[in-house]
Design a protein that fits this description.
There is one protein chain. The protein is α+β, with helices and mostly antiparallel strands. The chain has one helix at 73-88; strands at residues 26-35, 38-47, 50-59, 62-69. A four-stranded antiparallel beta sheet has the order 1-2-3-4, with no helix packed on it.
């Protein structure tokens, strides 16, 4: 036991080790973009809780996901548009 750990007065908890049941997801639309060594998969899906966009980044078999609820897609697009605009602007020269 690490010195700052103390045994719980409630004993050891047994966590539910059973996997969560799969939730049925229907794919509405999907697309793929290859940028340099990364592949981005965009999937608009729907489940009983609503619609969402799942963005998967695949780099040499390693996958990371972000999920954006459909209610936030307009705001997400606004921020993304601002980032694209900022990336295309020439930086101001640094004073010497």
């Amino acid at each position: 036991m690490i010195s700052n750990e103390r045994p719980s007065p409630f004993g050891r908890r047994s966590y539910n080790t059973q996997p969560k049941p799969q939730v049925q997801e229907d794919t509405i639309k999907s697309d793929k973009v290859q940028i340099e060594r990364k592949t981005f998969l965009f999937s608009l899906k729907e489940n009983p809780r609503g619609r969402f966009l799942r963005i998967t980044e695949d780099v040499n078999g390693r996958r990371d996901n972000i999920i954006i609820p459909a209610t936030g897609l307009d705001e997400f697009k606004k921020v993304l548009d601002e980032m694209v605009k900022a990336a295309s602007e020439k930086p101001e020269p640094q004073p010497e």
